[in-house]
Amino acid sequence: DAPDSYAYDGKRVKKWNVSCDAYGQPWVAGDVIGCCLDMDEGKISFYRNGDSMGVAFSNVRQEGESMAYFPAISLSHGERCELNFGYVPFKYPVEGMLPLQPKPPAKKLIQASYLISCLERLARMLVRSDDKTSGTNQAPGSKIHSNPSHPSEQPPTRTPDGAQESLQENVALTSHLLFTEDDSVLLAASVFEHLRPLLVEDYVVHAALLPALLRM
């Protein structure tokens, strides 16, 4: 309710800055409410599930380094919410707006995505091996035959440094190798050794790991 305090209330469908006026849409449980502060234009806008509800406030005071704005919420008894300032990917990103918490370098996401794709391929090979050996007398740890049709028929894979040609050459060299399930475990352990440091970033977990788990 102060001159430099700005709020949107989806229960009463009003905006607040000293006084209140009608604004926006009523929110319901599960809604994602976005708040965009444009300090270049001095404007504040709110979004509901990715849809803009228009500019709520104009002429927002800009005083350089002499003042700052802080995000805040007001909850009643039994209410709860989750705040995301960019530590995980936005469900409804707004073009031209940046999160308060910057996302990790793109290189980390590329590396994590590549390593996770390696684990996915290993998992698929193990599943195919189980399908082939089911109903036979092959013992656990039997050999798995990696035999893609031809390297040129494989979908392009982006490596951490973009060395797609080198990857295809490696596929050509290993396409007819035989290895055991124990070998697969060792390969997976090696991949995890490189992947583990990248997964300390919540953003990487949500952007790369969770989608892969949902695909499995």
TrEMBL record:
<dbReference type="GO" id="GO:0004842">
    <property type="term" value="F:ubiquitin-protein transferase activity"/>
</dbReference>
<dbReference type="InterPro" id="IPR043136">
    <property type="entry name" value="B30.2/SPRY_sf"/>
</dbReference>
<dbReference type="InterPro" id="IPR001870">
    <property type="entry name" value="B30.2/SPRY"/>
</dbReference>
<dbReference type="InterPro" id="IPR045129">
    <property type="entry name" value="RNF123/RKP/RSPRY1"/>
</dbReference>
<dbReference type="GO" id="GO:0005737">
    <property type="term" value="C:cytoplasm"/>
</dbReference>
<dbReference type="InterPro" id="IPR003877">
    <property type="entry name" value="SPRY_dom"/>
</dbReference>
<dbReference type="GO" id="GO:0008270">
    <property type="term" value="F:zinc ion binding"/>
</dbReference>
<keyword id="KW-0863">Zinc-finger</keyword>
<feature type="compositionally biased region" description="Polar residues">
    <location>
        <begin position="134"/>
        <end position="152"/>
    </location>
</feature>
<protein>
    <recommendedName>
        <fullName>B30.2/SPRY domain-containing protein</fullName>
    </recommendedName>
</protein>
<feature type="domain" description="B30.2/SPRY">
    <location>
        <begin position="1"/>
        <end position="90"/>
    </location>
</feature>
<dbReference type="GO" id="GO:0051603">
    <property type="term" value="P:proteolysis involved in protein catabolic process"/>
</dbReference>
<dbReference type="Pfam" id="PF00622">
    <property type="entry name" value="SPRY"/>
</dbReference>
<keyword id="KW-0479">Metal-binding</keyword>
<feature type="region of interest" description="Disordered">
    <location>
        <begin position="130"/>
        <end position="163"/>
    </location>
</feature>
<dbReference type="InterPro" id="IPR013320">
    <property type="entry name" value="ConA-like_dom_sf"/>
</dbReference>
<keyword id="KW-0862">Zinc</keyword>
